[in-house]
Batch of 3 targets.
Target 1
Amino acid sequence: MDQNIKQAIVRGETSLGIEFGSTRIKAVLIDYNFETIGSSSYEWENQLIDGYWTYDLNEVINGLQETYRQLKQEVENNYGITLRKIGSIGCSAMMQGYIALDQAGGLLVPFRTWRNTTTGTAASELTEKFQFKIPQRWSIAHLYQAILNDEEHVASIDYITTLSGYIHWALTGSKALGLGDASGMFPIDASTQQYNEEMVKKFDVLISDKGYQWNLKDILPKVYTAGKQAGYLNEAGASLLDPSGSLLAGIPLCPPEGDAGTGMVATNSVKKCAGNISVGTSIFAMFVLDKDLSTVYPEIDIVATPDGSPVGMVLANNCSSDINAWLGLFREFSEAMGMRLHTDQLFSVLFNKAMEADADGGGLLSYGYYSGENITGFAKGRPLFVRSPESRFNLANFMRVHLFTAFAALRLGMDILTQKEQVTIDQILAHGGLFKTPLVGQKICAAALNVPVSVMPTAGEGGAWGMAVLASYMVNKEQQEGLADYLANKVFDDAKAQEVYPDSADVNGFALFMERYTEGLAIEQAAVDHFVEN
């Protein structure tokens, strides 16, 4: 088997996926059978600068190069081969946000990420104008808010894109974006699988009095569906990705995608009525719709799969950040006591402790609002942990409540789909770091959503693996073979998912927690107001 893999590496019969997540940049190299040959990661973190959550684009390039260097080194160590040829490459990143570039390719303002909740006025006005939900994180909301704010940089815009589109452009020179990520820049017309022309015209009319030298379509990336080729790695891109000079130019790149799209691919959830949930810094659930929703909901976004099917999406801005902060505190304590624990061991011990807790978390309450939370209407983030004298305050309940609260805001949005729109959810496929600890994340998720939750063996690899699969699909698909068929018949044909059903006691316990959560939102708002005012 090793010999076959070596031959595949030498001949370039591999696919590389690189994903820029909120806390990790990850690269995964797969063979023709979608098995992981090598993987690597680079830790990074966003910063709140001048009121905006951002990442330095110099760090983007540093992280890209370091992640590839580690992957290249792992392949060389394991197989004795220096990576020179790769069959196909794909880049993905955290969804949407706002990167604005001038004609020379220079950054006009620091990258504004999905996490910002500074575009409320713009998002609301555009939602009303289009009669289509425009979330605050979408690129068009960031652009219009900058226009409303009379920001000087807007007049100099030559190109706006997402982080995945920026990386793709840096490697290929192509201003391209995959359909899934593009559907979070601006609404997509499902019939044409391109930006909605009527809404584009409405936007241009809306800002016509500003006298800008651009119109909207001129500054947006070109939209590509999954399976299309969206450029080649050019000489500058090859040197950027691999400064050592080993990597050859000319490698085809598939359309860049957002982490929502790669999550759908990684969980085989692109066909009609499929559902998946992704957990990380944010948490979102996506359901491929078989009919239009009856109305516009502030809590439900309409996006698209990488191959163009409409998707109902519930996204909460906050999930794991506060949990990670608390585990960092426990790590400090253990090190102060002379114990050095591996990260996986720390998570495993504390997450499994939650399984010993009272079903409702012992009357404790937590809001992990590290940033603003769109579903519950919070513009600013202030993590809050609350208990009463009657609460049963112990480690097990503490961990259970923090896991519960990671799913709480999402549950509020999910109730709209299931109760108001009668969307049937038979099963959810899950992925993300929280599910790396066996069974715990699944049990909590199943309790929170009251549906069976399945995890694929590839769940730990996540979106970078999904991006590699999209890159493979571009070069290895049969003529007229759709993405859903490619995934079902080739990628996941013998995959065995681990399924966990909701436990009635856990479901009832989560319901009791949600009663406290919704009743206590006023407490959280008071805390936010206090910190903002002082």
Target 2
Amino acid sequence: MPQLRLALNQIDAHVGDIAANAESVVHWTRHSAEQGAHLVAFPEMVLTGYPVEDLALRGSFVDASRRALTELAGRLAAEGFGELPVLVGYLDRSEKAARYGQPAGAPQNAAAVLHRGAVALRFAKHHLPNYGVFDEFRYFVPGDTLPVVRVRGVDVALAICEDLWQDGGRVPATRSAGAGLLLSVNASPYERNKDDLRLELVRKRAQEAGCTLAYLAMTGGQDELVFDGDSIVVDRDGEVVVRAPQFSEGCVLVDLELPAAAAEPVTGTVDDGLRIDRVVLSEEPVEAYEPEVTGGYAGRLEDDEEVYTALVVGLRAYVQKNGFRSVLVGLSGGIDSALVAAVACDAVGAANVYGISMPSRYSSEHSKGDAAELARRTGLHLRTVPIEPMFDAYMGSLGLTGLAEENLQSRLRGTMLMAVSNQEGHLVLAPGNKSELAVGYSTLYGDSVGGYGPIKDVYKSDVFTLARWRNRAAAERGQVPPIPENSIDKPPSAELRPGQVDTDSLPDYEILDAVLARYVDRDQGLEEIVAAGFDRELVARTLRMVDTAEYKRRQYPPGTKISAKGFGKDRRLPITNGWRERA
């Protein structure tokens, strides 16, 4: 059987920075060539970054992507890689009308095979996702071909991401076309437990396609999305040949033995009306060689480590890609700000993390001490600025009482953080968690201020779990656990009035989070949640808090998405909304 050394370049891309992305493609193609690759692949829309959102509607951006693709083909040839086929994702436009409202020239999520200084083959994504964070039906028109490229005597069918996640289309068409390899390029965002789902999907599709399947994934982060890599190659029976590390950029090499292309290949139209678009690049098989890379299975991260790593990768990408050098955290001594600070130190280094302790008359001594202990353990910069003088000045002028007095303290802290950010150039990190955002347990323009919310999609009970994991991981490595045990063990409190604890206003977090997971993540209604065994009054009160807090969530900064339904593009509800789940 013909042999083929496949190079899957599991790399990051920067949305909009086409020149830097092209440079990255050249760099990793060079690396792949040095490793003896016969076919090189890069992730979905690697040339433009993903997702480009409304940039897809800007003609100048589409033109720049198309021009960069042609220039990239020429540069690869000029650097001596012209005989090496390179698959690159990019943004294209259609040449014909696809549906009403999107005439000829509409954008396409596309990929191309570059060879001998030219674009040898272009194709567009066939299945367009339109759920969760995806709006591809808004932007793109679908492709209507099954692209097949013959490389060293092997027919390789090509697909893009959702082409595998949906039934039909290019997967059964690959079997009909008799291809020996199905290569899919992807930019599928991370979600908790998605790696297990992805593996089963790839196994199933390989069996349906009747051939070896290579699934190449992107790494890095883009705004709220994280890409976790985890590229996979399985044989036609669904057995894993190689699996790449999670959250790690690099080149995955694998030597494959694949069926020889048919002397008289299938032509015409196959499954779902897809027309086979076949291009022959090289007929002669590779001279037989001793395989060097026949497989490998990268160690998997345990669940808590996986989520924590996603938070680190997401924050690091946001900081670096937006040109920040440092971050700023308000340190209360509580668990949320402690976890955010630990994530920040791991993401950008403690030398680039700045903390401010802003005690009021209600701040406990142990909370102030916990903030100082966190700084000592991590090595971040800490300053202490009491808010008492500012608070007294406001109170003397306004005479506030009750909730307004409590919230004033939070807003003074928010103002101070933004003032320091403005003066010193740090990115302020908002410490709110998913539980608080869900029920509106935060102060608008107070503890909700910031440019990024690292734990925005983490429920409070998971905040404790991740903090314990991070400390345990540090101890196992012989390092100092970053989060003070007191921050983990003490009852959560905003400390805005004497003796205040969160359970004065909220149910126990374990119960609250279980209700929220059903209502927010799974869209269950009141009766369905009550039927699952929860107290009716508690559920009704929780749901009312969620519904009336929508306006607050809209004003919260972006933050790393780790669940199937984070607050943002995943969950889109009207602010002005008269519907309520009735008790």
Target 3
Amino acid sequence: MKKKLTSLSLGLLLGASAAFAAETIYTAPSFFDENGGYFGPDCDQTNYSGAYYTGDYTSPFKTFLGKTDAEIQEKMDQLWNHYFKGDNNSKVYYDNGNEAYIKDINNNDVRSEGMSYGMMIAVQTNHKEEFDKLWNWAKNHMWHKSGDWDGYFAWKRGDNGQGGDDNCAPDGEMYFMMSLLFAANRWGDSQYMDDAQYILDKMWSNYNHQLFNTSSYIITFQPTNGNNTWSDPSYDLPAYVDLFARWSKTHTDKWTAATKATRDHLYKSSNTSSGLFSDYNNFDGTPHAVSFNNDATRYMYDAMRCAMNFGMDYYLFGSDAKREEEMAKRIIDFFEKDGYQHARFNWDGSNPSESYTLGETGANAVAAMALANNPSYEKAIKTNLEKAWNASLMTGQYRYYDGLVHYLSMLHLSGTFKIWKPKPTVEKKTVEGTEYNGVTYDKETTINAFEGCKLYEVTITGKQSAPVVDAAIAITSVKAMNAARVWSTNSAVVIENVAAGTNFSVTDMNGRVMMKSKVSSASHEIPMSNKGAFLVMVGNKTFKVIK
């Protein structure tokens, strides 16, 4: 029987440093789904603490609220059955044979936003049939494959596929591209990849319309004259742009520049006092007024998605963790002070109106994930998670938008949302004995392990071999360990009075390994910026350290 599980990284609970991430071995029963889709670890020159690098998608519902896997799956099934399979007062998904559409009930139309949201939900919940039907509808009625808007999607159509508006709304393009890339990787369908690559190329190469401003590399409100010199910060999806930079076959230099610009713009858009975002804004982050929307400079319907966007980037990549933790503190502090009563505000937090919404309940809970490394926010994190978990699903006229924003948020909060990657090469190896990476196995077990930037299928034999021990050496070793001392400074954990070469490991309080190595001197320092409680195992002794 396993003594502890070391497969999970500290992406949610601890902001592990790049050095730790590079040295950690990540293990799990499997990093593949039942169809062979890969969501496991990866590495590059940075190796930050996010799930992209660790393959860890542990739900905060589990770690903070104690929910079981079965309870979490039941909650996600409830969401699917409500919005996709429910009655005419709950569902937003409408099946049309070989096609299907997501309907904006209040406006009685079909929007690229909702279609792409539906596709993301379908690929993350492994509903390929529904994904294909939605993509068929979008391809047949929204996608421009020639002409002025080549590569883009009409942002609005009637539910018969006609009329509406040929112009684009950029959040739709962002979610279409991302969901198609995930589908190609998860389900192994090259046509999804071809379609995704076509759109990725046209976002920069369409002569008439570039989705991102070509000077600032910030996404535009709309890539048309008069609308391409300012933005909507809720279109900032840094995790998506980061993946486009990695997986696009064209314009990788531009996608890379846009990755940094997107993270910078999202940070600038967060009000330094309230943490709120305006619906529309300038490239410097300040609100942007327009004649056709009197509330453009306020925190309104679009802006609530920003919290989900930076919270998502925090746990998926962790590359902008410091600023995203700062943004999370601002907005969670603000809503805590407000008592989660109001929904709409001026950018600075003044002039509150309307009641706190279902969409905000979900989006702010995702933002709170960026505070998981800060013990002083544990209560606020639980408050936001409980609100998202306990929220009543929407019915009636206004269920489409708030319902889907909450649903997307629940994908992140439940651990359902994963980065589905191209399948890596898997090497096989056998480990003789009962211990591997700090876990004891009492029978033959096969697991996945990511070590040294390679993925392995590891078979641990589970057979205990009788050790040959020199009694005199053993007695000396035990005496030496009795003198061991472990303590902490602001920047390190220190191991003293232990022989060089002694094995040690540092874990969180749940036994998740942060680092494993050997003591190099009689006073060995382990650099650590993390705060909180840790377990330090040195030889055959365990010490609890609080930094």
